[in-house]
Amino acid sequence: MRAARTGDTFWSVGVRTIIEPFRIKAVEPLALTTRAQREQYLREAGYNLFNLSSSAVTIDLLTDSGTAAMSAAQWSAALSGDESYAGSASYARFERAVKDIFGFAEVIPTHQGRAAERILFGVLCREGHVVPNNTHFDTTRANVEASNAQAIDCVIAEGRDPARYHPFKGNMDLVQLDGLIEKHPEQIPLVLLTITNNSGGGQPVSMENIREVSRRCREHGIPLILDACRFAENAWFIREREHGYAERDLVEIAREMFSYADGCTMSAKKDGLANIGGFIALNDSVVAREARNVLIMTEGFPTYGGLAGRDLDAIAVGLHEALDPDYLRYRITSTRYLGERISREGVPIVQPPGGHAIYIDARGFVEHLSPADLPGQSLACELYLEGGIRSCEIGTVMFGSGLPGDDDFEPAENDLVRLAIPRRVYTQSHIDYVVEVILSVYEKRYQLRPYRFVSAPPVLRHFTACFDPL
Ligand code: F0G
Known about the structure:
By secondary structure, the protein is α/β, with parallel strands linked by helices. The protein has helices spanning 35-44, 72-79, 89-102, 113-124, 138-146, 174-183, 207-219, 231-241, 250-259, 285-298, 309-321, 325-344, 362-365, 375-387, 396-399, 428-443, 461-464; strands at 59-60, 106-110, 130-133, 150-153, 191-194, 224-227, 263-267, 278-282, 357-361, 389-390, 392-394, 416-420, 451-455, 466-469. Strand 3, helix 5 (138-146) and strand 4 (150-153) form a beta-alpha-beta unit.
């Protein structure tokens, strides 16, 4: 059969059904619960989905991080893991895979992405520094700020508006970047670019934009560091959407993206297809030496960095599997299918669908609630009550400040609910189930109730706050 490259058809000309490019060898039961049970579980969890036991969740779309199903090849590589403290063969295989795809000279393993961020920013950033990024993910922002530098988001205007279409909505606004470089010529220790832009809806960054950001950085001697968690999905979007890349190999596209940068931080829990792990990769050997000194103090010896040898081997295989065109076509098509099915029925989502997640615009979905009524929380709770789906509020609960009713209350810019899709875990019929549950909640959207905080910690309140429906 002739394989289809683009358009509606999937694997072969004329066939539209999305099939998983794998068969299943080990299965895990799903919790099938009644509405009465879910009502009880949610009440006991203080209406915070983070407090639910996973055994109470039917389809878990809380995150795509660390939740991938590993392949038989990864499991067999894991069995060959070399657990030596120093000089492990697993590290050599890991380093080879990272160098092959990312092309940087220095490879420093860490236990996950935020450890890479903490170490790198700890070495490079100080008080008075300014760090531009398209959009900082929350741990990235927290680690920039923990080094006393200021984190500034510079995504293009389209990237801030859920409804507006742009093929590369994760692009950096070059005018804003130029302005920052001009205003703070000596105070920018690095420029970050997050591919894909998670906080902006899993939206890709174009090769042209990476090249242009790189050109500016090189002109001013500023290192460009990619936050590369979803680099493979970004490479796929470049191949699908950017002129001149349709026939290019995905590994080549990835190598070209990284060739414009001086290093990256990576969470292998995303496009490493592993359950744990991350790394820093760099060309600058002086910065790498300082990073390794911190690593030894807080993560572990430089040939394991807080990971087991088997984790390093699983990542070495996973990084290449993430660039498999059959896998990426299925992954991106399946995410888009979910987005298109619900938006066709009127559900407002961040457009176009991103790579790893669909973001529902809760303010548009639950029009009768104001941001002070916590529409994202209300919708996320209802998706759980209706069908046992766990999603994540990304809105006033997570990013607002103060409590509704208080003088210092400030809602977030948007109220979104993220449905993040674990890699290779759910089948197309699970996705159809998710579509059905969302549409059934949409039909009775005017019954969704306002929520209020019962308790909230001062920082990162979304993880532990408790709520009540009114
Ligand atoms: N950068 C981005 C863009 C991320 O999405 C994440 C994690 C990190 C850095 C940190 O990596 O979790 O390995 O420490 N994102 C997860 C999420 C948690 O659900 O989006 P980590």
